[in-house]
Automatic annotation (TrEMBL):
<keyword id="KW-0808">Transferase</keyword>
<dbReference type="InterPro" id="IPR016181">
    <property type="entry name" value="Acyl_CoA_acyltransferase"/>
</dbReference>
<dbReference type="Pfam" id="PF00583">
    <property type="entry name" value="Acetyltransf_1"/>
</dbReference>
<protein>
    <submittedName>
        <fullName>Ribosomal protein S18-alanine N-acetyltransferase</fullName>
    </submittedName>
</protein>
<dbReference type="InterPro" id="IPR006464">
    <property type="entry name" value="AcTrfase_RimI/Ard1"/>
</dbReference>
<dbReference type="GO" id="GO:0008080">
    <property type="term" value="F:N-acetyltransferase activity"/>
</dbReference>
<dbReference type="GO" id="GO:0005840">
    <property type="term" value="C:ribosome"/>
</dbReference>
<dbReference type="InterPro" id="IPR000182">
    <property type="entry name" value="GNAT_dom"/>
</dbReference>
<keyword id="KW-0687">Ribonucleoprotein</keyword>
<keyword id="KW-0689">Ribosomal protein</keyword>
<feature type="domain" description="N-acetyltransferase">
    <location>
        <begin position="45"/>
        <end position="194"/>
    </location>
</feature>
Amino acid sequence: MLKKLTKDHLHKKFKRLFDNIIGVNEQQAAMAMKAYQVNINGLMYYVGRAQVSDIDEILDIERAVYNGATPWNKQAFISELHRKHDRLYLVIRKDDQLIAFIGSSYSRGTKDMHITNIAVLPGWQCRGIGSFLLNVIIDKARQINACQVSLEVRVSNTKAHKVYSELGFESQGISAGYYFGDHEDALKMALLLSEDKN
């Protein structure tokens, strides 16, 4: 037997659908970002949203940082970059060379901005570039009313632990065998934003 849809029921159903569409559109607008130049510790860089045409250079950075390996392949990056409503990937260039990138995903359900990956070419590390990218994602998370920014980091990467801790990230426990290949454990970290909103 078919359920008779009342006017009120149809109105509620339409409102939910409309709210979901508007919510996605507002979120996509919030995740939008125009390219700009920035001064980081006295040097000028170009910051912009990652494009599919940047992927080969992003993979080169991964190889340089991860001893020739690419934790993410080209198809994974293509898939991520096409999801503009809930993904934000940024690149930094110096004199037209891509030297760093960061990726993040946003969950409306959990209000979590999750940093999926970040890497800086070895020759450009310890210049504030990674911290700058993290702060851009943190600022974006605040703009879209995220409750937290989260990430995983290798337990052996103590240099990164220090950077994250200085930005306010706190340990949330260990994910055993998290990393593909060597099965190294990951330290889960999060920066809670709900308490510091203005």
